[in-house]
Inverse folding.
């Protein structure tokens, strides 16, 4: 799991990034990734 701010690799379950100490909200992070994947799939199905 990468920090959304500095892209440092962090062990899953950490609340703060090891590099920049940013608070990481994994629940929203996963949700955001899921939504962007869904959008990518949607675009593919529209434009192909
Ligand atoms: Zn970071």
């Amino acid at each position: 799991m990468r920090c959304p701010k500095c892209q440092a690799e962090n062990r899953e379950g950490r609340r703060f990034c090891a590099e920049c100490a940013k608070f990481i909200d994994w629940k929203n992070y996963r949700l955001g990734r899921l939504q962007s994947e869904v959008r990518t799939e949607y675009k593919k199905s529209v434009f192909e």
